[in-house]
Amino acid sequence: MYSFFSNLKKCRDNNELFPKIEVIIANFILDNHKIIPDLSIKELAQRCNTSTSTISRFCKRINGSDFKTLKEECRIYNNFLEEKEIVKPTNQRTLNESYITDLFKAMKETSQANDIEKIKNAIFWIKEAKKIFFFGTSFSNILAQNISEKFMRLGKNTICPLTISSQNNIITQIKPDDLVVIISFSNNNFQINRIKRILRKKQIKTIYISSKQDSNYNNEITLLVSSLNYKEFESPIIQEFSINYIINYLYLFYIESSYF
User: Where does the record place the SIS domain (predicted)?
Assistant: First the structure.
């Protein structure tokens, strides 16, 4: 759900990177998501002054899916907005104190989750890689852009595709001497699982930054982060700090190891 709307937002917010008609479609859906489940593909095309074939191509390009899936994503999102109840803290002081406490707990758990040899192996792979491809969906894609930018500034050839269609296109270009870094707190959603299947088939070295490890392949390293999160909130207000801890630790370790 969030990945789909995140991709729409990227299309709208980065309008110079997308065809004008796709920006128009994305903008219409974001502004009118409540009525999308009731529209036919022909009706949506008419609202956006385009053709049904353009709508179909848009769905495929933005989310790797079809119009039926687009309608279902909007329906799920609309239901979520109607039904979701946020648990409110008793007072602002309680919120501040508990949040800080939980942040420190998450940082400590993350700092203790990975032994030094695992970190060294990850750094070695990063140094040896000809290109590094960073993948993430929804909010994790923002974190993927963060680490991609950081290692680009250290002279690495980094690539971080923004949309699912871009990810699907770029993944075919990955070669055996490249490295992939996947950021996903759950390590389990449709797009990430699809990427993992392709990478494992091609036997590409992959580093995961996640709260869960789902394999023990020799060409994979999982850098674990704390599993602590606020389930009553949908935004990763704890997880982003845990993941950024690993990102920044890799960055600092890479710089430090370059002097030896």
Answer: 122-260
